[in-house]
Amino acid sequence: MTENETSVVMLGPRDRLIGELYIEGNLRVSGTLEGQIEATGDVDVTEAATVKATVTGREVNVSGQVNGAVTASKKLVIGRGGSIVGDVRVPRLIMQDGASLSGGGCRINTSAPGDGRGGGAAGNRR
C-alpha cells in the first residue's frame, strides 16, 4: 500500500467483533461490534449494524443502532432510522427525519476556525 492509499475495513452482516479496533483508514460496519472503535478516516454504521461501543472517527455516519459515546472530528450524520444512545462530541451534527439521539450529554462546537463567534450549525433539527 502506498502512502496516499486509504485502507477500508468492512464487517459484514454476519460478522461479529468484540474488543478494540483501531483502523488507519475507513471502517464500514454491517455486523455486530462491541467494545471500542477508533478510525483515522470515516466510520459508516449501516442499517444492519448493531454497535455497543465508543466510536471515534473523522466523519461518522449512523444508519443503524449505536449504543455508546460517539466522537467525530468533522461531522456526525444520523440517517433515517439511525439511532444513537450515548454522549456525542462533534463539530457538526446532521439528523435526518426519523433519526434518534438520546444521551446524557451532547457537545457541538460550531465555531469556525479562528472565528471565535460560533455559527454554521447546518442541519441541526429545529
How would you sum up the global shape?
A: globular
Counted beta strands: 13
Taken as a percent bin, the fraction of beta residues is over 45%
Low-confidence stretches: 112-126
Main sheet: strands, sense, barrel = 13 strands, parallel
Helix content class: under 10%
Radius of gyration: 14 Å
The number of helical elements comes to 0
How far do the termini sit from each other? 45 Å
Tally the structural domains.
1
Coarse structural class:
mainly beta
Write the H/E string, N to C.
Answer: EEEEEEEEEEEEE
- How confident is the prediction overall: mean pLDDT? 85
Write the layout of secondary structure elements.
Layout: E1 7-11, E2 16-23, E3 25-29, E4 32-39, E5 43-45, E6 50-62, E7 65-67, E8 70-78, E9 83-85, E10 88-90, E11 93-95, E12 100-102, E13 106-108
Supply database-style keywords.
13 strands, 126 residues, 55% strand, disordered C terminus, single chain, 13-stranded parallel β-sheet, mainly beta
Summarize the structure.
With 126 residues, the chain is mostly beta strands. The chain is 0% helix and 55% strand.
Structure description:
The protein is mainly beta and 126 residues long. It has one domain (7-108). It is 0% helix and 55% strand. The chain has no helices and 13 strands. The protein has strands at 7-11, 16-23, 25-29, 32-39, 43-45, 50-62, 65-67, 70-78, 83-85, 88-90, 93-95, 100-102, 106-108. Strands 1, 2, 3, 4, 5, 6, 7, 8, 9, 10, 11, 12 and 13 form a 13-stranded parallel β-sheet that branches. The relative contact order is 0.13. Mean pLDDT is 85; it is low at 112-126.
